[in-house]
Amino acid sequence: MAIKHAIDLALGRNIGAGGIPAEAIEAGTTLAARGLARLREEAASGALPLLNMPAATGDLDEIRTHAARIREGASDIVFLGTGGSSLGAQTLAQLKDYAVPGVGRLAEGPRVHFMDNLDPISFGRLLERLPLETSRFVAISKSGGTGETLMQTMAVLAALDAAGLPAGERVTGLSEPRPAGGKNALRDLLEPTGAPFLEHHTGIGGRYSVLTNVGLLPAAVMGLDIAAIRAGAADSLQPVLDGAAPGESMIGEGAILAIATALEEKPIAVMMAYADRLERFTRWYVQLWAESLGKDGKGSTPVAAIGPVDQHSQLQLYLGGPDDKVFTVITTGVAGLGPRIDGALAERGGQPGFAGKTIGDLVAAQGRATADTLAKNKRPVRTIHVDTLDERAMGHLLMHFMLETILAGYGIGVNPFDQPAVEEGKILAKQYLAEG
Ligand SMILES: O=P(O)(O)OC[C@H]1O[C@](O)(CO)[C@@H](O)[C@@H]1O
Predict the structure, then answer these.
(1) Which Gene Ontology CC terms are recorded (predicted)?
(2) Are residues 188 and 121 in the same domain?
(3) In a 3-state reduction of DSSP, which class is residue 356?
């Protein structure tokens, strides 16, 4: 098994007072079994298209063809889109060092930019400094109506026009088809330029879209094996399709813990990953969990952390602060990796224990120590160990957390697929903009 999942250190019977009590686990198991059965039915009926994505292969060649077209002659590839139209792709891109401290700037191939946060200084400077002639832009929005993405796209079109460069050769769109009799602003903007368009799946929402062309087009642009990402997702889903009991699979165990923790009313869910290449994954998880479950006065607040660096900022609170959190600590198979420390230098630096050890040895020890220390301090912790962080493992993790989130929603009785509250602020912002 390339991924090991354990909830032992979250259980009251193993860690004492702060752990999740047996009664909550029992109730969680019953609700998880119900949710798993519902998912199995939804997979069979096609009612939840996300569940059919792992096995889908028919669209992969089209995605690869568009990716090759976008890469051709490009010095820079700019992805426009926000929230679920960006975070999954960024997560996958980190496998190729995107936004990884130090090496991200040194990565080979076209430079890739995900402009998910709207900031006038950043976007202005980007357009000033990009070599527009050799830059390509991909505008992604399920609805086609998100203000941030539309404004960025308009700014790009104006910049290309001012430079005398045909937009249709440099810009690609990805959005839902125009609804019958309805509007899609992104299509209205781009179609007159002749820009090619990919179709956003109409039955899969943005934060669940990483396995569709929304995540896989940028992944293919970066040279990742997109079939392996889907195969990893299938690894996660298979026990659901097989009808495995909740306690017999990673997804079943995850669902039990998520539901039991909600019943215990732990208001904060911390995801701490010991890998630079999982930093965007923790941000993707935050959106998924928060937008899916935070409704009807329910839900828990997701917190993203990476290790070891956040040991030096958040760990004190986690160990000594309020007992209101459940932790997920993710480690990877880094033992033995990275520079090996010279014995004489270790002596000279007063760290004889470092001699002959690698940086990976220290990171592996730290991840393990953090999980064990949390448990010793009676803080419930679930551990996930990924041997090799590659496309298949990432597909597995992504599908796991999408399924776990859906099962948590089913278990606590909220609809994990909508986000009604977000609309209010969007409408008000447009009103303020119009008022000037
Ligand atoms: O893909 P779209 O329609 O541009 O939406 C972007 C994001 O905005 C939201 O609709 C609300 O914040 C998210 O759910 C979504 O991922």
Answers:
(1) cytosol
(2) yes
(3) coil
CATH number (domain holding residue 129)? 3.40.50.10490
Distance from residue 316's CA to the centre of ligand 1 (Å): 34
ipTM score: 0.98
Q: Atom 9 of ligand 1 has which residue's CA nearest to it? A: 83
Model confidence over 220-278: pLDDT tens digits?
999 999 999 999 999 999 999 999 999 999 999 999 999 999 999 899 999 999 999 99
Listing DSSP states for 76-91 in one string gives EEEEE--GGGTHHHHH
Q: What is the pLDDT of residues 276-321, one digit of tens each?
A: 999 999 999 999 999 999 999 999 999 999 999 999 999 999 999 9
For residue 318, the CA-to-ligand 1 centroid distance in Å is 31
Do 322 and 349 lie in one domain? The reply is yes
In a domain, 285, yes or no: yes
* Same structural domain, 163 and 294: no
> Could you confirm whether 291 is annotated as catalytic?
yes
Q: Is there a domain that residue 35 lies in? A: yes
48 belongs to a structural domain: no
Statement to judge: residues 220 and 239 lie in one domain: no
207 lines ligand 1 (CB under 6 A): yes
- 113 has catalytic annotation: no
Residue ranges making up the domain that contains 79:
53-227
Whether ligand 1 lies within 6 angstroms of the CB of 148 is answered as no
Query: End of a domain among 227, 255, 286?
Result: 227
Cα separation of 153 and 147, whole Å? Answer: 10
Q: What is the DSSP string of 91-104?
A: HHHGGGTTT-TTGG
Contact 298, 242 (CB under 8 A): no
Domain boundary among 209, 227, 245: 227
Pairing of strands 381-386, 301-306: unpaired
Q: Does residue 166 sit in the same domain as residue 283?
A: no
**How many structural domains does the chain have?**
2
Give 85 Cα–ligand 1 centroid separation in angstroms: 7
Give the Cα separation of 336 and 334 in Å (integer): 6
Task: State yes or no: is 248 an active-site residue.
Answer: no
Q: What is the helix (H) or strand (E) element at residue 250, kind and residue range?
A: helix 250-263
- 58 lies in the same domain as 142: yes
Of all atoms in ligand 1, which is nearest to the CA of residue 81?
4
Q: Choose the catalytic residue: 291, 325, 385, 391.
A: 291
**430 vs 279, more confident:** 279
d(CA 183, CA 189): 11
